[in-house]
Amino acid sequence: GAADPEVTADLETVGYHVDAQVSATDACVAGAVSDARTAGGNLLVAVLADEPDGGASAFSAATLAEVGTPATVLVVAPSTVDYADDAGFWTQTELDEALDEAKHVASDNDVVRTFANTLVGTDTVCSNSSVDGKSGWAFIVMFVVIGGGIIYLVARSVRGRSDTDSST
């Protein structure tokens, strides 16, 4: 798999690239990159909508070769997640542990955040409005409460009207 010039340019300028069609958010990925840099590492993250040739492993290695600075490149693709590293800030063991932890979560945001959290020792969480079960339940509960309130008010209003009609 060859590196993508657009992805490489984004990694060199802002430290991350998030394709438009993925569930990851710029805010979450940028936060993970920032936390890693605050800790002293140079984490670069690419979240891709399409699986690259050779998977995340080949793409991360090719991208790392194109980036003009020692770094850890994490690639999150639809079917594969992997990293390439030539910075040496984190040990191979630390990076492998972070990758292993990241493979056990569901959303793209969670994969990126878990990888960074494991390396840096933080426990930051990103909101995953598209996949987070709690936010879905909040909408259902809110809908039921509002819907129930409207039905109650309409029923009370109709009952009130029929009471006044019968008294005339």
Give the topology, please:
Blueprint: H1 5-13, E1 16-18, H2 26-38, E2 43-47, H3 55-66, E3 72-76, E4 81-85, H4 92-102, H5 108-120, H6 133-167
Parallel strand pairs: 1-2, 2-3
Antiparallel strand pairs: 3-4
Helix pairs in contact: 2-5, 4-5
Structure, explained:
With 168 residues, the chain is α/β, with parallel strands linked by helices. It folds into 2 domains: 5-120, Diaminopimelate Epimerase, Chain A, domain 1 (Roll), CATH 3.10.310; 132-168. It has helices at 5-13, 26-38, 55-66, 92-102, 108-120, 133-167; strands at 16-18, 43-47, 72-76, 81-85. Strands 1-2-3-4 form a 4-stranded mixed β-sheet, with helices on both faces. Strand 3 (72-76) and strand 4 (81-85) form a beta hairpin. Helix 2 (26-38) runs parallel beside helix 5 and helix 4 (92-102) packs antiparallel against helix 5 (108-120). The longest helix has 35 residues, at 133-167. The relative contact order is 0.13.
